[in-house]
Amino acid sequence: MRKLIMTLFAAVIVAAAVCLCGCSVSYTNYLYQDSDKYTAGDREISDKIETINIDYLSGKVKLTGTDSETVKIRETANETLDDDRKVHTWVSGTTLYVRYCASAKRLDLYKLEKTLEIDIPENVKLSELKIEISSGDADCSKFEAKSVEMKASSGDLFASCKAETIEMKASSGDITLTQTGESDKISLETSSGSITVLTEKVGKLDVESSSGKISVASDGAKVFKSHSSSGKGEFKFAEVPETAEMEASSGDITVYLPEDANVTAEFDVSSGDITYELPFSKSGGKYVSGDGSRKLTVETSSGDITVKKLQ
Questions:
Q1: What own/partner pairs with CB < 8 Å and gap ≥ 24 does 105-108 have?
Q2: With a threshold of 0.85, does the pTM exceed it?
Q3: Looking at the predicted structure, is the pLDDT value of residue 32 above 70?
Q4: Do the beta carbons of residue 139 and residue 61 sit within 8 Å?
Q5: Which of 12, 101, 142, 146 is buried deepest, with most CB atoms within 10 A?
Q6: Where are the domains of the chain?
């Protein structure tokens, strides 16, 4: 009898524990420096802002250049927020720091869904825009900056801007970029997701996707590199890069070039076909069009390589 009672008692304890776990709130530790200098909630900032640094745990961040002369910060959520759970901002000199919530331990952020919107004057060139999101999307458009850095652990990244350097990394998510003007360097990388790029003039353009389609349309990139472990690649060049390298472990690669392109191409296919519309002449293992001054290397382990005329 004693053994039966102890067994029943243990079962009750386990059931209670399961119930408590099922009903418990998930707490989060979120800590950062100078927390006492931050302001909670929506606000409008008339100070001159040249640098924006955003750290947002989860949700969506939308930054847009507008005709406003001030910076406006607005936040919406799926529930009423106390001050600790509202967006926190601090202006130090010409730098705007944006944080997801208050700096504290054991914050109740369970099932909290937030969207942050930031309007900035589109006629101001930022020295730096930096955005990091643990889980969520970032959408930034109609602005100019010297340096742009966007990172998401899980979520999509979208940018439409003019900047000297652009770096976008997503651990799991798609990357979409529309670049205008001239950039020194653009680097785009996602572990699992597609990459879509539209550029004007770029000194060096690097794109990499471990698993996902890569689509690039460029008016002029001097140096271009693309790598995909698994996924198709489609590349359109209005002006042939000085050097261009495209590699896929598994997937078809299609390259669009001007009909009068001056290029020397090398193609390497382990399992697949090579077809082309340009007037190539073969010289050994190389394909030459025009004076052959530009260098193109295309390689796929399993897939077809196709070179088409750019319409």
A1: 105/27, 105/29, 105/31, 106/27, 106/28, 106/29, 107/27, 107/28, 107/29, 107/30, 108/25, 108/26, 108/27
A2: yes
A3: yes
A4: yes
A5: 101
A6: 26-132+144-149, 174-311
